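Subject: Arginase family-domain-containing protein structure
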Amino acid sequence: MKLYGLLLLLPFLSLTGAHDHHDESQPDADTLASLKAKWDYDFSFSGIPTFAHLPYTKCLLAPSVSYDIAIVGAPFDTAVSYRPGARFGPRAIRAASQRQTSFRSFNAQQGINPYLSWAKVLDCGDIPISPFDNALALQQMEAAFTELGAHRSGSGGKPPLLVTLGGDHSIALAALRALKARDGEAVAVLHFDAHLDTWLPAKYPSPWPSDQQAFTHGTMFALAHNESLLLPGTSVHAGLRTRLSGTDFGDYEDDDAQGWYRIEADEIDAPEGVDGVIERILGRLRGKKVYLSVDIDVLDPGLAPGTGTPEPGGWTTRELMRILRRVVGEVDVVGVDVVEVAPAYDGVGEVTALAAAQVVFEVVSGVVKKGVLERKRLQAERAKDEL
Ligand SMILES: [Mn+2]
């Protein structure tokens, strides 16, 4: 107690000393500049890992901080049906993102460095979420997404885009609620996943009555539908290969009733291949406001084993990247999550987390590139008006 009190006094003592004469312990401007020149950089493997070495602010504590794109961790995994562990996803994805640095992140496929363009991209840290009470957790996530989504945009344009690192898939319900409350309209969901996640809560065995068990990482889109958060008849599943309940296609009928369009994983092997998948997605979603939800289990478990509910026969990381590059440029992305990375089941080469970090890179590249093109178009329009 005594020692602690003394430590608290120390800064006060040194401050009062500085009042009277020049404080020799404070470096001068030249020294600071030379230190900056000598030490103000990191290698990809050094530094405390924020996503892609981006500047870090705990944005929930700093409502006046502006950004165009915020990377947000949602470490929550107590709504899973099989393997828990996605609460460690945000950490793993940040660690796996370290080879993305602003000085070497020119995306040659998209022709842009998303970290050195018009957009202010920040790592906003994690939302503190209860691991003990899922009702409270959902409330906390919704409040956090609402507050984070209400920040000013760095460029003074559209409201900021939140890119959430999961966490299990149930976090999407909180994100969709916050989006609808902010923008006042329902959105389409583009959902990459092996599974439907539109399962009716009653489809799970539940002889013990409980309202809370309706909220899971397999039901959140059914709940979102019930709450009218989804634009009717627009949302798209891509990469499906799940087993269904019972002895028939009842789960698909429930999915139809909620207005979804399904693209199965196998359909990428049709002669049209990846381009065919892209065209089918865009046929539904081109130009629309889209919440992009990427469950990493859309990838084959050979390429992404570190996940909650793995299903053999998935897409490759390369295929997913190609799809994302094209699609993101032609829809209006208003929210993003990358979920179900559970590093305890990942390989030593952190393949799953690497794939998730790459998904974020491709999506952020696409969004920033779209912003560049929109700016050019606006400039051209203004120039025309002035003539
Ligand atoms: Mn899912």
